[in-house]
């Protein structure tokens, strides 16, 4: 889905700000038919949970209602008029006046409705958006809802971050011509010093198309016509990690000498390839350094915030990180656009986290239900998962920063039924985008001995916590376990390995001269141990620390004020480990460090 943009033929109106707000049941039946009967106002974009002090709002499970009045610009007469919701977590319904105009399931990808027939240019209308935060066995991510003896509905889920709900991203009103560009797909390659830019364009009706490629100085470097073609760029400037260069593809619907519609797409010319145990960008081995992150800040919850966007990328640059994973859902489009412009590499992930009932049984010390069965994660779950993959790729396929699709985090890949569940999803991902590698993040419970699906993927991503959940406080034993684990995966599959999660909860300001977990010194020693092992194991091509910053989780006796594995606090102050990572990552750049033996001496033979 194309992002809503203001161009010479399209206009864009932000609907962000304060909206009337009410919980379902508190505003009467069919609340979209009149002004919401509520004194509450909620900010958009923001999750609703932490905005208010009433626990009934924070703990609400079900639908909530947002409403505001919107005036259509009078100059939009003759154009098509759309309302677009960048995200409604986890399901949304849009009403214009009394009419339902759009419904969508999935909390992190956009949806829109053509409302031309129910609004008038220059007129005003009542816009109501209902949002549900419910998770079930057939949603992505999955969950379940229980009802207490006193009638309260409670949401249960298997992922370790807070289930924020609401309109966490922007809402827009925009206009576009009747005959317009509806989709653009760009695929790049390199032929010697020439850049190759393949394009495919869809339109709302048959139309004559003109395509122009501009360089960063806005000089035209190539052009073509038609819905499909290839542009060749002599002496191309590549999009490189840490050195982004963007061209602009201008797609125009033309009628004689008149431009009926125009839409721009940023283009970074680069190649991505997996060759043996190497991950190559533009033909050169690339070593990932960075983090798993979260869209998570105080008060806003998962609400997109441009100030935090800028500051977080500044911290990534300061610490020497060249990449991150969008754990565990697609991030706001503005994040990927920023990564495109600044040369930061992204592993783009669906919201498929929690497909693992073995974890449920382990935490509860109870019987383990099968993850994949007609009664648990079933065909309906997989259908929702497939739709999440389709929408992720449709939205993010043109971003040069996105070098790999991650279709799930920590599924129970060692269980019966895992292969039957995932094989069609991997096939779908490759059909939708044959140009990027595909991966998933493997959970500790699934070893290289019994994992059922790793051979389906291009890259092995491992989430491991040796020294924290295993051998806690004993880094000597943890180092032995970790090296055995990594060499096992490398030997069996011969594929690139990224440590997609490794970390230790750390309280800022807690210190000790001994190796005591939760201290800043332990987090430092924990990372240093991992880095020694990474440097010794051939095939490791990246390290993503869990996590960039502390973040909010659900209530639990194993969490005090959220997950504390951040290298930065939730308010972005660095812990001691941040300086250790900075020293390492600014030294290695995008190349794997030289191998070291167990004493820390460099092995000159590697």
TrEMBL record:
EC number(s) from the headed UniProt entry: 3.2.1.31
All copies of domain Glycoside hydrolase family 2 immunoglobulin-like beta-sandwich, residue ranges: 179-270
Pfam families xref list: Glyco_hydro_2, Glyco_hydro_2_C, Glyco_hydro_2_N
Provenance organism: Amycolatopsis balhimycina DSM 5908
Name assigned to this protein: Beta-glucuronidase
Family: Belongs to the glycosyl hydrolase 2 family.
Enzyme class: hydrolase
Keywords attached to this entry: Glycosidase, Hydrolase
Any Gene Ontology biological process: glucuronoside catabolic process
Span of domain Glycosyl hydrolases family 2 sugar binding: 14-177
């Amino acid at each position: 889905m194309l992002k809503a943009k203001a161009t010479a033929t399209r206009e864009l109106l932000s609907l962000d700000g304060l909206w009337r707000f009410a919980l379902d049941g508190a505003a009467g039946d069919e609340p979209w038919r009149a002004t919401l009967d509520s004194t509450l106002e909620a900010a958009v974009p923001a999750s609703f949970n932490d905005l208010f002090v009433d626990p009934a709002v924070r703990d609400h499970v079900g639908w909530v209602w947002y409403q505001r009045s919107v005036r259509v610009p009078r100059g939009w007469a003759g154009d098509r008029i759309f309302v677009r919701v960048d995200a409604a977590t986890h399901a949304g319904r849009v009403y214009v006046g009394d009419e339902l105009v759009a419904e969508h399931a999935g909390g992190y990808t956009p949806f829109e409705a053509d409302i031309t027939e129910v609004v008038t240019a220059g007129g005003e209308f009542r816009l109501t958006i209902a949002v549900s935060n419910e998770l079930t066995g057939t949603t992505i991510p999955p969950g379940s809802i229980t009802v207490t003896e006193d009638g309260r509905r409670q949401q249960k889920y298997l992922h370790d971050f807070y289930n924020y709900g609401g309109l966490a991203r922007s809402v827009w009103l925009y206009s576009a011509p009747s005959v317009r560009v509806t989709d653009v797909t760009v695929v790049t390659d390199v032929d010697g010093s020439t850049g190759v830019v393949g394009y495919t364009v869809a339109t709302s009706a048959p139309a004559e198309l003109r395509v122009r490629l501009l360089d960063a100085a806005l000089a035209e470097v190539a052009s073509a016509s038609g819905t499909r073609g290839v542009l060749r760029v002599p002496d191309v400037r590549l999009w490189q990690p840490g050195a982004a260069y963007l061209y602009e593809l201008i797609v125009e619907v033309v009628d004689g000498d008149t431009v009926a519609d125009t839409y721009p797409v940023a283009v970074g010319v680069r190649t991505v390839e997996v060759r043996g145990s190497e991950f190559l960008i533009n033909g050169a081995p690339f070593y990932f350094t960075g983090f798993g992150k979260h869209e998570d800040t105080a008060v806003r919850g998962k609400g997109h915030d441009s100030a935090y966007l800028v500051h977080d990328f500044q911290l990534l640059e300061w610490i020497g990180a060249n990449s991150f994973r969008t754990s565990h859902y697609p991030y706001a489009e503005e994040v990927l656009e920023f990564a495109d412009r600044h040369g930061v590499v992204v592993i783009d992930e669906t919201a498929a986290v929690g497909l693992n009932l073995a974890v449920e049984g382990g935490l509860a010390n109870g019987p383990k239900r099968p993850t994949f069965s007609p009664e648990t994660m079933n065909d309906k779950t997989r259908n929702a998962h497939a739709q999440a993959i389709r929408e992720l790729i449709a939205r993010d396929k043109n971003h040069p920063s996105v070098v790999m699709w991650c279709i799930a985090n920590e599924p129970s890949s060692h269980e019966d039924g895992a292969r039957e569940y995932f094989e069609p999803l991997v096939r779908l991902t490759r059909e939708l985008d044959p140009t990027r590698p595909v991966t998933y993040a493997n959970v500790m419970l699934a070893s290289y001995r019994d994992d059922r699906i790793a051979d389906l993927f291009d890259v092995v991503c491992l989430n491991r916590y040796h020294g924290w959940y295993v051998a806690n406080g004993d880094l000597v034993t943890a180092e032995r376990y970790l090296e055995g684990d990594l060499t096992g995966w490398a030997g069996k599959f011969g594929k690139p390995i990224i440590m997609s999660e490794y970390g230790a909860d750390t309280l800022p300001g807690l210190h000790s001269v001994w190796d005591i977990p939760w201290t800043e010194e332990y987090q430092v020693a924990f990372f240093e141990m991992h880095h020694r092992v990474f440097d010794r194991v051939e095939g490791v091509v990246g390290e993503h620390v869990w996590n960039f910053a502390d973040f909010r989780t659900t209530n639990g006796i194993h969490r005090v004020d959220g997950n504390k594995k951040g290298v930065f606090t939730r308010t972005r102050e660095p812990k001691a480990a941040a300086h250790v990572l900075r020293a390492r990552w600014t030294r290695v750049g995008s190349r794997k460090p030289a191998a070291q033996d167990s004493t820390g001496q460099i092995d000159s033979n590697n």
